Amino acid sequence: MEINQPELDVAPEEGSKMERKRMETSGELIAALDKSAADARAALKETTDEHLETPWKLLARGKVVLEQPRYEMIQDTIHHWAHHRGQMTVYLRLMGAKVPAIYGPSADDNQFI
Question: Which DSSP symbol is given to 15?
Answer without folding.
Answer: -
